[in-house]
Amino acid sequence: MADSEGEPQIEPGESAGAEARAGLRSQAFSSLSVINFRYLLSGTLASSFAMWMEQIGQGWLVAQLTNSPFQLGLVQFIRGISILFVSPFVGGFSERVDRRLLAGAATIVNGLGALAIAVLLVTHHIAMWQIYITAFTGGFSSSIYNPLRQFLVYDTVEFGRLPNAIALNAMANNMARVVGPGITGFMLSFSVSSVFFGESLFFLAAAASLAAIRLTQELPAQHEPMLAAVSKGAAYLLRHRALLRLTLLQAIPTLLVFPYLYLMPLMARDYLHVGSAGYGWLQTGVGIGAVIAGVVVAGAANVRHKGVIGNAALVFYVSMILAFSFSRVYFLSLFLLMVGGVGFITFSTFNQTLVQVHVEDEYRGRVLSLYTMAQGLNPLGSLIMGSVAATFLGTPHTIAVFCVVAIVLALFSGLTSKEIWDL
After folding, report:
1. Does residue 94 contact residue 151 with C-beta atoms inside 8 Å?
2. How far apart (Å, rounded) are the C-alpha atoms in residues 255 and 123?
């Protein structure tokens, strides 16, 4: 509508709608006004690119060398052994040293491991035992920098911005998941070594971003023994039933659902009949849906009833992976993964936000480390899933059975829990 001068007139309802959309955008990206968080977020994006390149490149390489679902699961199990044993101690250690430097050093170690694999590929000296070693050191390093990056989110923004910052951090991870697998699949069509060279560069860039962060971290004058610190952290988690429930909910998809990603090379090749590029886009699927939903989740970071919403989103996500296991049509499979990504980003963001908001500062590092240890169950699930797929059920049916068990446990552990309903 225009006035007599020809200038456009905005109806009151349109103005209110425009202001609401502008407010949503402002709220969704509010944490980006903090320069330290911008550095951290850029590093998160770089390290996420590197980790996806590692996962896809390593999976494709192992499939080429062995053609075995058991070996795919074994490599991830070896990677996870170090996560399970190291993670509990990272929280206590993070209170005694500069968290930026420790996270940066661990990131560089991962980059050097990727570079070593790339050189071995170029020189035609690659063997499975070398992949086992780099998988172990990679898991060791990630068990250090993953909880520290979560801790640094809290360090870089004030408490009021924390839910938004966590949501943006999750969105950055999924942006890498959208772009990284597709690029990696394209690179695989030229050479496997190029993927590992690229991974090493992204890890080094992530380390450089940490060096740019300027924080004042107060270190305690006296330290209690490390085992005592870990024990107190575990006792604190056991006392706080809501935090314990949130950690257990994270463990369910980590153990029973996420391992399907490591069997994706076989799903892509043997059941959906696509090559490396199609495989890369399948790995991207959940990330596409997660990025689409990520801005909404970031803008609604302060919504009430996060516990129930997050748990329902978890059930929805697993249901989409269950449907994916039955699909033999490539584009239908990709669509199911994309839709599942909406549930994935909602669950992961709300679950981690609730942990960060409800934990006391004194125990933050230790609880986040135990939360990361739950994520270390992923390789154990990969070994079990790979073994069952190779020996009994085959890849698609194994994914389906694990998803059904995960849905039952998620419904029982989450939606029937008073602690989750109260969050």
Report:
1. yes
2. 36
**Which of 355, 138, 379 is CA-nearest to residue 250?**
355
Give the residue among 365, 367, 348 at the shortest CA–CA distance from 239.
367
The type of residue at 256 is L
| String of DSSP letters for 15-45 | HHHHHHHHHHHHHHTGGGGSHHHHHHHHHHH
| Count of beta carbons in the 10 Å neighbourhood of residue 162 | 18
Looking at residue 401, the DSSP 8-state letter turns out to be H
Contact 201, 59 (CB under 8 A): no
Helices 99-122 and 69-94: crossing angle, nearest 10°?
A: 160
Start-to-end CA distance of the chain, whole Å, equals 46
Sorted by where each begins, the domain ranges of the chain are 32-213+229-421
> pTM for this structure?
0.69
Other CB atoms within 10 A of residue 394 CB: 15
pLDDT digits (tens, 9 = 90+) for 9-47: 545 554 545 444 555 455 666 777 888 888 888 888 888
Domain 32-213+229-421 CATH (choose: 1.20.1250.20, 1.10.8.60, 3.40.1190.10, 3.40.50.1370): 1.20.1250.20
User: Would you state the structure tokens that stand for residue 115, as one six-digit string?
Assistant: 């570079």
pLDDT 10s digits, 115-168: 999 999 999 888 889 999 988 888 888 878 777 887 788 778 776 777 778 778
Amino acid at 85: F
Nearest to residue 89, comparing CAs of 250, 255, 231?
231
Contacts of 305 (CB under 8 A, 6+ apart): 421, 423
Token pair, residue 293, equals: 């939903």
Which residues, including other chains, have CB under 8 Å from residue 93's CB and lie 6 or more apart? 102, 226
